[in-house]
């Protein structure tokens, strides 16, 4: 772990308005360079883009928020099979600390995942992160799956758009309470809600 970086695990209702404002600024700076649309949800003091996390792992250093990962327990369907997961999302790491992100966040979050007694942690990442995630997957329990489609509801209903979207996503699965062999076979994952 990088020196000077301290992690804080906190439930959503433990965050103060000042925490949300600081996280909002962090996400605008982190997601903005990938496109203005990606930073748009983080307006005012809204520190989430789709579904709101219930638990967050937040790394801080002398410059403020250094990295972030959110968690939300939910039931998904894999080709129609209901499955309890802890969805991991809202990944972010400050550009000057690249390499601190997903792998460190998962290590910090793993004991809590075990306490929550979820069978799996699940998340999706952009294809641009494929090389980083596949490299991480070779050295850990994280399984990287491609060739899957993920259906999500849109966080805000609009008359001119369908209520769901389907994306071909790079899926990460971390066995927590069960073996990866218990993950259902299938190529369509239904989130049954908006992406975290």
Descriptive overview:
The chain has 196 residues and is α+β, with helices and mostly antiparallel strands. It has one domain (6-190): Gcn5-related N-acetyltransferase (GNAT) (Aminopeptidase, 3-Layer(aba) Sandwich), CATH 3.40.630.30. It has 4 helices and 8 strands; from the N terminus they run βααβββαβαβββ. A 6-stranded mixed beta barrel has the order 3-4-5-7-6-8. Strand 3 and strand 4 form a beta hairpin.
Write the layout of secondary structure elements.
Elements lengths: L5 E6 L5 H15 L4 H4 L15 E7 L2 E15 L2 E13 L8 H15 L3 E6 L4 H9 L4 E11 L10 E12 L12 E3 L6
Parallel strand pairs: 4-5, 6-8
Antiparallel strand pairs: 1-2, 2-3, 3-4, 3-8, 5-7, 6-7
List the main descriptive attributes of the protein structure presented here.
alpha+beta; 196 residues; EC 2.3.1.-; 8 strands; NodA; 22% helix; Aminopeptidase; six-stranded mixed beta barrel
User: What value does the Rg take, in angstroms?
Assistant: 16 Å
Assign a percent range to the helix content: 10-25%
- Helices and strands, in order, run as EHHEEEHEHEEE
Taking the sheet with the most strands, its summary is: 6 strands, mixed, barrel
| Tally of helical runs | 4
**CATH fold group:** Aminopeptidase
Strands of the widest sheet, in order across it, are 3-4-5-7-6-8
The number of E-state strands comes to 8
CATH class categorisation? Alpha Beta
Strand content: 35-45%
């Amino acid at each position: 772990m990088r020196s000077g970086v301290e992690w804080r695990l906190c439930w959503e209702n433990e965050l103060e308005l000042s925490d949300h404002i600081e996280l909002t600024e962090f996400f605008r700076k982190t997601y903005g360079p990938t496109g203005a649309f990606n930073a748009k949800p983080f307006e005012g003091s809204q520190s989430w883009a789709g579904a709101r996390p219930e638990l967050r792992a937040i790394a801080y250093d002398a410059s403020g928020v250094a990295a972030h990962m959110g968690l939300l327990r939910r039931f998904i369907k894999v080709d129609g099979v209901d499955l309890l997961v802890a969805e991991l999302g809202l990944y972010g790491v400050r550009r000057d600390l690249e390499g601190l992100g997903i792998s460190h966040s998962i290590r910090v979050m793993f004991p809590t995942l075990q306490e929550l007694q979820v069978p799996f942690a699940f998340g999706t990442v952009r294809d641009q992160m494929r090389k980083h995630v596949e490299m991480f997957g070779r050295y850990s329990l994280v399984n990287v799956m491609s060739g899957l489609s993920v259906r999500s509801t849109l966080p805000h209903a609009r008359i001119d758009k369908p209520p769901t979207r389907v994306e071909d996503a790079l899926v990460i699965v971390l066995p927590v309470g069960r073996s990866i062999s218990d993950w259902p076979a299938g190529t369509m994952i239904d989130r049954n809600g908006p992406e975290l």
